[in-house]
Structure formats: structure tokens, C-alpha cells
Design brief:
The chain is mainly alpha-helical. Helix 2 runs antiparallel to helix 3 (55-65). It has helices spanning 30-41, 43-50, 55-65, 72-84; strands spanning 89-90, 100-101, 104-106, 113-115. The chain is built from four helices and four strands; from the N terminus they run H-H-H-H-E-E-E-E. The protein has one domain (30-115). Pfam families: OHA. Residues 48-103 form the OST-HTH associated domain.
Length: 116
């Protein structure tokens, strides 16, 4: 035992919620997955996820820009579900990058869509 620990969180941030991040049977409302789908289908959202260097960094992007009401552990769990069950994007076999998207990304400036 190390003794008392101090935790520093940003304003309105949740401390890690203990969840099994690899639980593909976790239940979240459809609205949660719809919000994630809208975010990663947008030009800015897909770009932010593509530019992430790890699943952890991608989860932080999702938490800060899309799932602000959830703890980071829950966001990691959702990320695991959308990769392994929904297959919305696929990390490279050697690591996180390069990332392949299996959804249509909508370009808000032209209205055109296409696979990313």
C-alpha cells in the first residue's frame, strides 16, 4: 500500500469509472452510439480520430468532443465495442495506425460523402 493518493481532475471531469473496457455486452443507449456515429462520420471527427496515435488518445478525443457526460473508462468501452462489434473502423494489425474507416464520412463543405 502506498498510502493516500491525490487525484487532480479538470473542472466537471469524472474520475475513472471501473468498467471492463473489453465487455462487448455492455449496454449503452442507442443515442450514445448515434452520437458517436455522427461524430466519426463528420469531417472534423474522422480527422481527429485518424490523427490519434492510440486507442487511449482516440477515447480522449471522443470524451472531450462527443461523450462529455461519460467517464473515460466508459468511453474506452464504447470504443472497444465500435471497433470489435460494430466494425466502424479497423486499426492496423501492427498497432493503432493506419486506421481504416468502414463508414461514410460526410464532407460538410461540399455535401459529398465517401469512404475514408
Amino acid at each position: 500500500m502506498l498510502g493516500p493518493m491525490s487525484f487532480y481532475l479538470g473542472k466537471n471531469q469524472n474520475l475513472w469509472k471501473c468498467v471492463n473496457i473489453m465487455d462487448i455486452n455492455a449496454k449503452y443507449p442507442k443515442d450514445t452510439f448515434d452520437a458517436v456515429h455522427r461524430f466519426i462520420s463528420s469531417t472534423s471527427g474522422s480527422s481527429a480520430i485518424k490523427n490519434s496515435r492510440s486507442k487511449y488518445q482516440a477515447a480522449i478525443v471522443l470524451k472531450n468532443q462527443c461523450l462529455k457526460h461519460l467517464a473515460l473508462g466508459e468511453v474506452l468501452q464504447i470504443l472497444y465495442i465500435i471497433i470489435n462489434t460494430k466494425k466502424w473502423f479497423v486499426p492496423h494489425s501492427s498497432g493503432w495506425q493506419p486506421l481504416s474507416f468502414n463508414i461514410i464520412v460526410v464532407d460538410a463543405t461540399t455535401g459529398a460523402g465517401g469512404k475514408a
